[in-house]
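Sequence only, no structure available. Ideas?
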Amino acid sequence: MDVQPFRVEVADEVLEDLRARLARTRFPAPSPGAPWAYGTDLEYLQDLCEYWRDGYDWRAAEAQLNAFPQFLTTVDGQRLHLVHARSPEPDALPLVITHGWPGSVAEFTKIIGPLSDPRAYGADPADAFHVVCPSMPGYGFSGPTSEPGWDVRRIAQAFAELMAGLGYERYGAQGGDWGSMVATQLALMDAAHVCAIHLNMVIAGPPPDEDYQGLTEQELAGLSDMAEYLKDGSGYAQIQGTRPQTLGYGLEDSPAGLAAWIIEKFRAWTDCDGDVEKAVSRDELLTNLMLYWVTATAHSSARLYYESMKTGRFGLISDRVNVPTGCAIFPREIVRPPRRWAEQAYNVVHWTEMSAGGHFAALEQPDALVGDIRAFFRTVRRDLAGSGS
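Reply:
I predicted one. Tokens follow.
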């Protein structure tokens, strides 16, 4: 596999054009009723866009991203961008970590170091990983995609080829949102090489004989939140799953429109009590947005919904995952099934219910996520050592 070093270097003209577009934004009139009731709040968005134009320092964010070793390669005819942080520990376990929508590899800046070099963070070097964080095809510097068919299964196949091309014979997979689905597909189609998966969003339906009367209060609350999400918060998925190109014209032309589309989800899906910046900083929000804006990949990232719905690989799986599975359940995650539901679909050997955090766990609760990944794979490593794998 031909893998070339890469650095993020956005041209000054792109940043100047962004500022000019932000300055020319034509905002709609405010909606009646409470802020955020009809969608992204006008006052918040105006304030955010003003900061994006005049206060946000992209060059500092660029330097932070470039502190990690990044590469470009080609898999299945598609350009693929990845962070590849090899551990200094010789016995480190390879781990591919996948983001989702509306996220990016920028989500992982707080966890790459602790996972790849735990010794430097005062932790046990036996917990080290060789960390691989690809940008999904169609997202960021892995985009846009130029042909149909890039559903979640094909992405998993590309990542399996990537890990083999990097020389990793045995590896783990981790993810939330689409990353959870990619990790699941990896476990299904590359079980000979995937030793285990860790999910911070678990998608599972009820068993045929489910007695809802036996669910705990906490489990019922999770199902209630999921029902509310399906009723009132999932319209974006239907649009992206049916008309991603139509949506893309506005998102690629207007940075304010892109911000409104994505920031609403960060506010709705984080553990923030209605104030998104309690969970994710303003600069972190904008750095994530920039990876969509400077690469013009809002439309192609949305196509993942279209392609995966078209092939029936959006959400629930029909086959059971038999590799060891660890689950970290954050209390404001949009999907929180009961453990026994998850056990119908996965070989669940590790289950942690967190005290805080939501959908973007690597940004919101990085220490908790890192701790749970380490704890789960500690048992996996012992089993691998015992079997001689």
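The first strand starts at residue 4 and ends at 6.
Hope that gets you unstuck.
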